């Protein structure tokens, strides 16, 4: 009898131990829509992947503002990434961990430390890049575990892309309660921020300490959220890496975007929006791949051009950390692919590009040696592509509000690959992401050097500090000054030897502003 009791007690203890282990490795959190069950990673960080933050934008909800997610009963297993948005494979360096693509794509992912009782942690919400045509929150370079190790609740968010996320059309404008169309992808991100406001406390985050961040199109989306009156109060800080909807990247007027939608409907032989909604997603994707659908001044999410909103000081007055890379563009795009980097060839190229302003351009982008040609060509190509718009965001945010603004120039080239004939001449577009997010280990393509690891440590610390406090500075790091106020304006040059250097580009960007008008 005693033996039977002993065995029963032992069995109960084993069950209780197993249940306790399961609770530890499969943490559960109650959200406004239902219970989600995540995973405890080997690091101790808890991850919750594939949480729906809006209804699937399919059927009649295609090309409509995101609707609140439905509630569910029971426990939703949040142990894998949701599907990526509908998109074509455009960039070989985008490696997704999600299982395929779907029009049903509005999911987000959360990484959070094991929270102490009552703790309210700062929050990072990261928007992926990809030209509003491709990208996914499952990419390893955006993974939130490294940020969570620093005491931050980190999220990545999926949003609609291409024709699904940005097509405007007169019928869509007419059926909208706000008489607007387009910008559905931007509204998806806004819906995710509303979800964060409502739910992030359950994950240990502080809804009043949210920072949004993104790179390229994700950075443009950051500027859009800053400009939109809908997003006021949803975040206190912003990080913009290479891109903004200002200057040469300003959104399209609604009437122009609507006509592009009409032309697209004619191309696919759809007589109405109802017909367009009947086209299968895969077919629509194939047709839409040949068109470019971008952000629109829709009169609702963006009531005016963002540049006008910033000029009037109507944008969100939040701390901003922003900058770009030294080789966002390639000097060969200025010279020509097979043209030698000589002063004569460079000057001829500038004369072709700017026949009436060549002398002024050469003064700001000089070319007396091959090294100077490469540096000036990279700088000019970068400005023409995406750097000028980012500078415009930084400049206007600093001029029209008092919250601190920090500007960087990222200069660390990636290590040379064996397949490359020449070593990189600068930091190319998107190169900084793994460094900033602490995720070099997810990129197996490069043999990272001690200098890369040092750059990543400093940059990751800067970003984490900014997310926590609105200020990137801390003991042991180079001093990073804001660009406001009197005295010498300094830019943080991020590399293995990061340091603040005087900003000598005022005349350069004054010239660039005149060139793009």
From TrEMBL:
Enzyme Commission designation: 3.1.1.-
UniProt KW keywords: Hydrolase, Signal
Organism: Mucilaginibacter calamicampi
Domain Carboxylesterase type B as annotated: residue spans: 26-499
PROSITE patterns: CARBOXYLESTERASE_B_1 (PS00122), CARBOXYLESTERASE_B_2 (PS00941)
SUPFAM superfamilies according to UniProt: alpha/beta-Hydrolases
Protein name: Carboxylic ester hydrolase
Parts forming coiled coils: none
Top-level enzyme category: hydrolase
Domain of life: Bacteria
Signal peptide boundaries: 1-20
UniProt record similarity statement: Belongs to the type-B carboxylesterase/lipase family.
